[in-house]
Amino acid sequence: YIASKNSDVVQRFYCHYNQSKLLPNEKKTFIFTFRSEKAGIFFEEWRLHTIPELLEPLPPVQVNGIACKYDTDQAKRKSILDTIEESAKKTLAKEIVDDLLEGVKTPVPPLPNIRDPIVFCYMFESNNIRMRLHFSPQVMNGYFELLQAIKEELKEDIKDAEIDCSISCLEGYIKKVKDTIIRNRFTNKLKYLIQRANNKSYDRSYAYPTMKRTFESLINFIPETVERLCGEQGIPEIKFEDPVERSPEELAKRIEEKKAIAADFYKKAKKKPKTEEEEKTAWEEIKTKLHEEVKGEWNTKFANLDKELEKKELEYLMGNYERMDYSKYATLSRKKSIYDATIQDNIVLLRLDLDAEFSPIEYEEIEVPVDTSKEIEKSGEEEDEDAKEGEEKGKTKIIKKPKPRKVVNWQCLLDAKNTIQYLIERIPDRILIIGSYGPPLGYVAPEYSLE
What we know:
Blueprint: E1 13-15, E2 32-34, E3 40-46, E4 61-67, H1 74-103, H2 117-127, H3 137-154, H4 167-175, H5 180-198, H6 208-233, H7 248-269, H8 276-319, H9 326-331, E5 347-353, E6 357-358, E7 363-369, E8 377-378, E9 381-382, H10 385-392, E10 396-402, E11 407-409, H11 411-415, H12 417-425, E12 430-436
Parallel strand pairs: 5-12
Antiparallel strand pairs: 1-2, 3-4, 6-11, 7-10, 8-9
Helix pairs in contact: 3-5, 4-5, 6-8
């Protein structure tokens, strides 16, 4: 075995014929065994050693072997490969779906039909909200009549898609009219249209539906109450009819029909018909009770009506407030900032939040000499100055001094970097930075010093 420089000096090949005889012209086979505890490809060189030595030495024999290690991660590797394959499939499917979706486009919505009263009402009131104009069929007709007259005067094909149903839209087209007299006539018509739109019709009031529903319920309550009271008094009920003008003949005929209805009622009820005096008394009682019940119903309905109207008013105000956009917000007053100040050649006093996160407070004990400059009073008697100096000379005391702390979190200091940089770029005379650290204690605490 020849130890090669390229090997790790570990023998892995073994020859099973270390010693033997080799006669002239004899051939012999040498069997090698390979063993390695380390996986890899290995090479070794062997040479034939003879006694006596050969006249012509044989070249070294190079043997090689491959050692494999049992794969313990086969199942894990298979799982990883399956995961990668599944991810690749999902990615491919997503790319296909994305390609399909890119070709799918949402159809362009149709333009609003401004000739529709509902559409015109919404666009007219929303686009003229600052003028607080209200829709009505007469306003809509006047708007389009004026628009048609302007079209004929300008001889332009103004399409409905160019109209936003606002007053400013009409004003823009009126300004294009060159004839002063016609332009003034159109302006006067527009003013009249605005005057009509300022008046809101009663049926579009937020209180109208509530009031209508309340009065309808009260109106329906009266016939029901009369029918019930007539049943209690045992007289024929009356039917409410719309008041119309009748001729004497029709009136007499109507009286005869009422008498026939009353006779039929008493006949079915198997009761004796009441005299005129009895009927008059019964009707007086019905009127009295009807007045009391209608009055009570009126008070009940209108007691709840106030609360409903307040709720409707609140809903109306919340739904019709003027919405803010960027341009409107910009017009509002705001507090002045650093960008509003004049920095150049001025002294800037900058207050910063310096409450950075520091390491915990640690103290160290140091020995300092006692201050003997102060006078010491004992029992109200003043001692001799030389005696005091001799007594206090050479004395010291131990005090606790906080150790320097390290900044753990610099975030609040980094946040102030842009502000300081902005000030430096504006070339001030000087910048004075003040700040505080720690909670307000009311006394000087060395551990919270910014030094």
